[in-house]
């Protein structure tokens, strides 16, 4: 960029930035073309002082000249612990322009989910799902962006953004294809680690073009900038020394040249030796020395400004620095003159309401690091109270409380606990964890210590189960937790152990705690939890489990939620064993109150968890009570969506809604729900039970549709293969994989897989041929090479189906038996299968039976009926099979 284009130092950071500006201009031109233009993402990366902020300012200038709306924000090093701070600042211009009722209208269902994180509504007394809040923020920005097209989002110093904002940003930039918005992100390399680094890497990966790394100025550009600032008479050796001293860093170059002007140094070779000393005074220790030279009051003012970090008003700084407002005004002017503080640019990237800001983040960092440690700690303590008194709330004050020196302060412990509750209520568990970990350092008084550990365990339950285990075990080892609170702590500890793949220890934990209690509600709840975890394990981790559960349930009338839970658990236990479906349903019905879940047993209630309700709903789905099952599945889905629970709970809800569709025979709807479940499960993490549930059911549904190649590709893509999870997945994954292997012609592998399913089912006492359908597929696989064993397997499966007693189970067993026969016996068995499955609510199985019967009986009428059913189900494979027979017409009548 030429000297003439940049006649002064104001635009100095844009020297040699032609390529970056060209790319930005091209993106802005594309953005303004029409509403249908896809979104775009540009990432600028460069060390401190290379001009990232100047490029964002230039982007704003160009964008506004083109009629674009520009929202901007910046990460601040000292505010990284404040959740959602950066995204709040980004959206502030849009939010302040809306009345509360307008904001609710624009955000719709997401208002109550994202509103608390954005600070526009009270979160109330709730525990927000972090993924749900993130999704809510994505939806909120998307809706606001469509209102303000063409929109440009500028995010400076993203490396200093809070973790919650980075999670939102990573999710948002993945969904730009159908949103006409330009996102420009500037960051330094490095600077972060952990989840924040992962989110920034995801942002970079989402960019449609390589990340632009900004380079230092060349010697020629530095010379041009020097002459543009100091005059054409600056000689070549002097300019060369400017470049050597600053390394071509634009910020340092501008600051050094300002010092040259202030010191009236002639830009000639003979004075070039003074440049290094001048440069040292412009940064780091030299800057601190220069600040101290302005006097004690100015230094204290600068310290206070650095403590506040953002929203730097003279009034608040005066309070924090303990000085009169007049003195504070004088200090502010001194610091402005010294190029340490400046007035915010109304068109700049900051959207807070302060009077001042630091000229550059490097200066803010240097000033903050210069504060003596004891003074820094004391000032943070005062700042916390000032923030509270200013009406900004305990959550915002918590970043200062985290810095206060531990001093057995009971009030501080309570403040940190209150802040943690607010952080949890807006979906920021990591911020809550930091507050509670700091509270432990105070430390709390003995009677409060266990409660803080318990609250910390609750905050880290789903994000850090291994850490949670230690906190809750320590809490339970202290006095301070008693009654229902202690029982709840044990339950949550067992949940953490379960999530940490310590299933047996989870069972033993609740079992040991139950033994400490006398007969009563607490003991009963713990016993129910023990049976629940054992039921999920799918293995007899305790001897005589079913007998003990039956004995306990014999005394239950369903008078409270512990008894209702036991009734559900016994019903599920009988389901898995393949006992009478009528008895299963009778137990499940007794667990409801007027046909509905009792208060405290809802999908978002935390006393019991999702596992129990899935056991109840699955008991209904496999006993052919699909109306009841689907009602429960859909109720769970609505509850999680309306509450903003977008993590594992929502993934499971979609998976089981898909299972309901699959059982009903709505295969297209099943596939849609299961793909959505798998999308969410991918975000939560692979190899978890919920991931297996989504994948297993999707493979099963694709096989039912006749989409064998898609089923195989899905299995390959998502790792649907051994080793299998230790917890129950419905339907049984070994059986489904065996069926998949049969479908792709790998019969020997299929037989091995199905025989492994047989052994695993026998070891666990799982004999329901609908839930664990290995026998029917194994019989078909062995029909050619070992017909005697195939017939025995089919006969055993039929007897088990008759014991269970549902139309679906018996009809499916008869379908298998018919497949092993020929002639009139085959026709008779196929006809019986049709009769049972016609009475079943499972329309795909009915369609398959009709087609098979039509082929066996050579009946055009039955084939046409089967064809119509198959089409309504979306069973393309059955349609093709029936169509082929009808088209050939051989032997049909």
Automatic annotation (TrEMBL):
Q: Which residues form the Orc1-like AAA ATPase domain?
A: 16-183
SMART domains attached to this UniProt entry: TPR
Q: Does the entry feature the keyword Nucleotide-binding, yes or no?
A: yes
Q: Which InterPro entries match?
A: AAA_16 (IPR041664), P-loop_NTPase (IPR027417), TPR-like_helical_dom_sf (IPR011990), TPR_rpt (IPR019734)
List the residue ranges forming a coiled coil, or say none.
493-520
Q: What Pfam families has UniProt attached to this entry?
A: AAA_16 (PF13191)
Q: What is this protein called?
A: AAA family ATPase
Query: Domain of life of the organism in this record?
Result: Bacteria
Keywords (A to Z) from UniProt: ATP-binding, Coiled coil, Nucleotide-binding
Coiled coil keyword on record: yes
């Amino acid at each position: 960029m030429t000297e003439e284009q940049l006649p002064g130092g104001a635009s100095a950071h844009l020297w040699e930035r032609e390529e970056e500006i060209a790319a930005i201009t091209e993106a802005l031109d594309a953005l303004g073309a029409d509403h249908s233009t896809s979104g775009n993402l540009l990432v600028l990366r460069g060390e401190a002082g290379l001009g990232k902020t100047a490029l964002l300012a230039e982007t704003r200038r160009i964008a506004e000249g083109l009629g674009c709306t520009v929202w901007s924000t910046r990460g601040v090093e000292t505010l990284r612990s404040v959740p959602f701070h950066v995204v709040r600042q980004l959206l502030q211009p849009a939010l302040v322009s809306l009345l509360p009722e307008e904001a609710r209208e624009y955000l719709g269902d997401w208002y109550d989910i994202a509103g608390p994180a954005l600070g526009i509504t009270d979160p109330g007394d709730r525990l927000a799902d972090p993924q749900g809040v993130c999704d809510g923020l994505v939806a909120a920005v998307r809706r606001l962006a469509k209102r303000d097209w063409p929109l440009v989002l500028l995010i400076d110093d993203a490396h200093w953004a809070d973790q919650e904002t980075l999670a939102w940003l990573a999710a948002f930039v993945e969904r730009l294809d159908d949103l006409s918005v330009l996102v420009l992100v500037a960051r330094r390399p490095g600077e972060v680690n952990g989840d924040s680094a992962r989110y920034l890497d995801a942002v970079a990966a989402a960019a449609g073009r390589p990340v632009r790394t900004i380079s230092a100025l060349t010697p020629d550009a530095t010379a041009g900038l020097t002459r543009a600032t100091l005059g054409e008479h600056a000689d070549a050796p002097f300019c060369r020394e400017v470049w050597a001293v600053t390394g071509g860093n634009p910020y340092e170059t501008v600051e050094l040249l300002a010092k040259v002007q202030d010191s009236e140094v002639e830009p000639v070779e003979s004075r070039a030796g003074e440049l290094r000393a001048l440069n040292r005074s412009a940064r780091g220790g030299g800057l601190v020395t220069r600040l101290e030279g302005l006097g004690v009051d100015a230094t204290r003012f600068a310290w206070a400004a650095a403590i506040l970090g953002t929203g730097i008003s003279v009034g608040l700084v005066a309070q924090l620095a303990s000085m009169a407002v007049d003195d504070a005004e004088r200090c502010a002017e001194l610091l402005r003159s010294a190029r340490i503080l400046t007035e915010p640019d109304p068109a700049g990237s900051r959207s807070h309401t302060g009077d001042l800001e630091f000229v550059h983040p490097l200066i803010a960092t240097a000033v903050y690091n210069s504060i003596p440690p004891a003074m820094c700690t004391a000032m943070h303590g005062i700042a916390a109270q000032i923030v509270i008194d200013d009406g900004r709330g305990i959550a915002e004050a918590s970043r200062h409380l985290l810095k206060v020196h531990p001093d057995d302060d009971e009030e501080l412990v309570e403040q940190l606990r209150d802040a943690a509750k607010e952080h949890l209520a807006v979906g920021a568990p990591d911020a809550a964890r930091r507050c509670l970990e700091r509270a432990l350092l105070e430390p709390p008084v003995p009677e409060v210590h266990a409660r803080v550990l318990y609250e910390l365990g609750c905050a880290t339950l789903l994000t850090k189960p291994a850490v949670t285990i230690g906190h809750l075990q320590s809490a339970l080892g202290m006095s301070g937790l008693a009654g229902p609170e202690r029982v709840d702590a044990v339950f949550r500890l067992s949940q953490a152990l379960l999530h940490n793949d310590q299933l047996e220890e989870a069972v033993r934990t609740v079992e040991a705690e139950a033994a400490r209690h006398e007969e009563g509600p607490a003991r009963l709840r713990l016993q129910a939890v023990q049976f629940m975890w054992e039921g999920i394990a799918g293995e007899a981790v305790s001897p005589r489990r079913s007998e003990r559960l039956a004995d306990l349930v014999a005394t239950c009338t369903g008078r409270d939620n512990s008894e209702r839970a036991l009734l559900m658990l016994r019903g599920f236990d009988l389901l898995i064993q393949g006992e009478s479906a009528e008895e299963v349903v009778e137990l499940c019905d007794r667990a409801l109150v007027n046909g509905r879940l009792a208060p405290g047993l809802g999908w978002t209630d935390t006393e019991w968890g999702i596992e129990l309700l899935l056991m109840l709903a699955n008991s209904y789905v496999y006993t052919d009570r699909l109306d009841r099952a689907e009602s429960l599945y859909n109720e769970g889905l609505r509850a999680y969506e309306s509450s903003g629970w977008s993590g594992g709970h929502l993934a499971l809800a979609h998976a089981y809604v898909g299972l309901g569709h699959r059982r009903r025979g709505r295969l297209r709807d099943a596939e849609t729900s299961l793909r959505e479940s798998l999308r969410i499960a991918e975000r939560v993490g692979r190899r978890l039970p919920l991931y297996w549930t989504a994948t297993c059911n999707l493979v099963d549904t694709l096989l039912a549709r006749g989409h064998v190649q898609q089923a195989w590709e899905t299995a390959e893509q998502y790792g649907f293969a051994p080793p299998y999870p230790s917890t129950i997945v419905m339907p049984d994954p070994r059986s489904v994989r065996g069926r998949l292997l049969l479908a792709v012609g790998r019969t020997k592998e299929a037989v091995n897989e199905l025989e492994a399913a047989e052994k695993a089912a026998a070891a666990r006492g799982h004999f329901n041929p609908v839930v664990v359908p290995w026998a029917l597929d194994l019989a078909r696989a062995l029909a050619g090479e070992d017909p005697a064993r195939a017939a025995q397997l089919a006969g055993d499966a039929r007897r088990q189906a008759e014991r269970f007693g549902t139309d679906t189970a018996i009809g499916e067993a008869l379908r298998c038996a018919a497949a092993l026969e020929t002639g009139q016996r085959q026709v008779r068995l196929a006809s019986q299968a049709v009769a049972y499955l016609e009475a079943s609510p499972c329309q795909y199985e009915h369609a398959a039976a009709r087609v098979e019967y039509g082929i066996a009986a050579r009946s055009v009428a039955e084939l046409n009926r089967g064809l119509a059913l198959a089409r309504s189900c979306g069973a393309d494979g059955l349609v093709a099979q029936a169509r082929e027979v009808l088209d050939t017409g051989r032997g049909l009548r």
